[in-house]
Design brief:
mainly alpha
């Protein structure tokens, strides 16, 4: 099962999990590289908010801290 078809790893929290669930598989593939990578949490928060699913930057940072090292990019 690829990243796009799986639930989010770690402790996503309800808002981030809802944003993930609302994305298409192609959107998930593109978003995962940023979520697990070095893209600013503030930028990702703004992107999600502009697309109708507000998720705070602190939620994104907390999610990243919950990821096991092998899942980080």
């Amino acid at each position: 099962m690829g990243v796009a078809t799986a639930p989010l790893y770690g402790n996503a929290g309800p808002k981030l999990a809802a944003a993930w669930a609302a994305m298409s598989l192609d959107e998930r593939d593109a978003f995962w590289a940023h979520l697990a990578g070095d893209t600013s949490a503030e930028w990702l928060s703004d992107l999600l908010t502009r697309h109708g699913t507000p998720v705070s930057a602190s939620t994104i940072r907390a999610y990243r801290r919950s990821l096991p090292p092998e899942k980080r990019q």
